[in-house]
Amino acid sequence: MQLVLLDSMTLGNFDEKIFTQFGDFKSYPTTDSAQVLERAKDADIIITNKVVLDSAILSSLPKLKLICISATGTNNIDMEYAKAHNIIVKNVAGYSTHSVAQHTLMLALSLLGRLSYYSQYVQQGQWCKSEIFCHLAYDLQDIYGKQWGIIGYGSIGKQVCSLAKAFGAQVSYHSTSGNNTQNDIPHKSLDEILKTSDILSIHAPLNDTTRNLIAKEQLRMLKKGAILLNLGRGGIVNERDLAQALQTQDFLFGADVLEYEPMQPNHPLLDSNIMHKVLITPHIAWAYKDTKERLLQMVAENIKQFLNVTA
């Protein structure tokens, strides 16, 4: 078998033996659209995270039998063409539930405790100049007793619920599809959950229903001092409206996803006037060590199952 990994940088460092066991394995850090055909022309199996494989590319890869997506989303693959031409596409799902939930709590706790400010205060030597034993520039907030709203109550949303409850939060949720409303915690309308939540975390997929779900009108509904977190997909929160709202409203924002990634240099959330209200990480909630190893094992298992079936 000829295997090619087109974007190894999206997986970081890992032991390539997990794939070399299946055949002749080649790996490239990144691959742009002009390089795909040359690199994948002899491949029986392609492994990729984000490289686009449309019908024009797939039609020029006659040996290709299997595409392994090292992620959950398959929107970079022309699924109809693949199905029509007997190219199997396998993704991985559920591997990052615990790490994304943990990352959500980390962002919430960091914002509640103004961790970035206070850490910089110490690192810059300011504490050494203090007249008293502590420094209280910003109010700190407990999770205990707070209203925590969850938008998107799938496996990650449920795990966040469990963690938030462990800290003593009162949890409710909003189903973006409207179909998931039979659970053991209160379901609220979008308007209600926006108006009542002290902490509001998003764990929904991006689709026609959720795109720009949180825009100017919805942001106006947020409680004073609220924390809004997006751990779902970029594009659910209108980032331009968000940046404008942060200029005048009293709330904080944390995220691990943006509509366009990597972040654009002129992004409105980089405005120095609001940066003290913002905590953004570069799409790493899925990439905790144990989680990434689980993902790689799942990709390898997809290959193994394919080879067992075709043997």
UniProtKB/TrEMBL annotation:
<keyword id="KW-0560">Oxidoreductase</keyword>
<dbReference type="InterPro" id="IPR006140">
    <property type="entry name" value="D-isomer_DH_NAD-bd"/>
</dbReference>
<comment type="similarity">
    <text>Belongs to the D-isomer specific 2-hydroxyacid dehydrogenase family.</text>
</comment>
<keyword id="KW-0520">NAD</keyword>
<dbReference type="Pfam" id="PF00389">
    <property type="entry name" value="2-Hacid_dh"/>
</dbReference>
<dbReference type="InterPro" id="IPR036291">
    <property type="entry name" value="NAD(P)-bd_dom_sf"/>
</dbReference>
<dbReference type="Pfam" id="PF02826">
    <property type="entry name" value="2-Hacid_dh_C"/>
</dbReference>
<dbReference type="InterPro" id="IPR029753">
    <property type="entry name" value="D-isomer_DH_CS"/>
</dbReference>
<protein>
    <submittedName>
        <fullName>2-hydroxyacid dehydrogenase</fullName>
    </submittedName>
</protein>
<dbReference type="InterPro" id="IPR006139">
    <property type="entry name" value="D-isomer_2_OHA_DH_cat_dom"/>
</dbReference>
<feature type="domain" description="D-isomer specific 2-hydroxyacid dehydrogenase NAD-binding">
    <location>
        <begin position="105"/>
        <end position="285"/>
    </location>
</feature>
<dbReference type="InterPro" id="IPR050418">
    <property type="entry name" value="D-iso_2-hydroxyacid_DH_PdxB"/>
</dbReference>
<feature type="domain" description="D-isomer specific 2-hydroxyacid dehydrogenase catalytic">
    <location>
        <begin position="16"/>
        <end position="308"/>
    </location>
</feature>
